[in-house]
Amino acid sequence: MHAMVFHGPGQKSWDEVPDPIIQTPTDAIVRVDAVTICGTDLHIMKGDVPEFTPGRILGHEAVGTIVEVGSGVHTRRVGERVLLSCISSCGACRFCREGRYGQCLGGGGWIFGHLIDGTQAEYVRVPFADTSTHPIPESISDEQMLMLADILPTSYEVGVLNGRVEPGDTVVIVGAGPIGLAAIATARLYSPGHIVAVDLADARLQAAAKLGADVTINAGRDNPLDIVHRLTAGLGADVTIEAVGIPETFETAVELARPGGHVANIGVHGKPATLHLEKIWISDLTITTGLVDTYSTPRLIQLVASGRLDPAAMITHHYPMAEFETAYDTFANADQTGALKVVVTAPEH
């Protein structure tokens, strides 16, 4: 088979590699039908994730069809179409029993495209197939379901729920890339008073407006603090969500929060960020971080199936697997291409 293989920072290629095989009884082998590229993959390509070693297959989001199951798989069957979650769950350890699958102690957590070979391939080995995959309902397209592998549950859990968005709140999302856009879409479920998107790219701010942001701020032209303070009578935002992963955007998210507010960090940070405790110690801020657990995926699937969410609206580009490297270039140069989410599909079988 072929797969996108990491060869060190800045180096990747669509290589011929051995087909995956069943290694434990709870494994399944899935033929990948559609896959996408995450901002985290770009962090990996920059060398921000030291655990990721050369020779590893990239990717942690996919939908596909099961072609083989191990003897210990009981609830999935060959021929079933499934979502491969970015987080795997052993289902038995302390954290999995608490629904904190991202912290799994039994060999799960974020392993695809991190600790084991990932999903940007023609076939993938899926550990813990019973507890780490989701059947695809008839009413949901592959593209809609693909957005539920990572960005929707990440934004919803780590951003909206950790940030404790409530009706009437002023919510500021710093960064209107795919994660930020998903935070806008899921924040709307809680009827905030204002959803404010902050970015440097007008194209992304236009997308934010389409998905529900009623105020957009280009931080290259306007001062977000001035605008948010005017909007909130000088208080600041009830909730700020950092959705980029660089020091400047984290510090902006903290600066925009009101006393007693919440700052929810979603972005994957590869460098230290300064926390100005000398300024904010008196402000009673709550700052949360987190890796997605994907406990919300079944609920989000229901919301998509019922038409309350349409994550496919974030997809801007499509490529066949043979053009995977071009897809990476398009996604990595979003400021020039306008890319939000890029979908890469396998040939029809």
Short note summarizing the structure:
With 349 residues, the chain is α/β, with parallel strands linked by helices. Helix content is 27%, strand content 24%.
Tell me about this structure.
This protein is α/β, with parallel strands linked by helices. The chain has helices at residues 39-45, 94-97, 129-132, 142-146, 151-161, 178-187, 202-211, 224-231, 247-256, 277-280, 297-305, 324-332, 334-337; strands at residues 2-8, 11-16, 28-36, 62-69, 81-84, 123-126, 133-135, 170-174, 194-199, 215-218, 237-242, 257-265, 286-288, 315-320, 341-345. Strands 3, 4, 5, 6, 7, 14 and 15 form a seven-stranded mixed sheet that branches. Strands 10-9-8-11-12-13 form a six-stranded parallel sheet, with helices on both faces. A two-stranded antiparallel sheet has the order 1-2. The radius of gyration is 20 Å and the shape is globular. The model has no long low-confidence stretch (mean pLDDT 96).
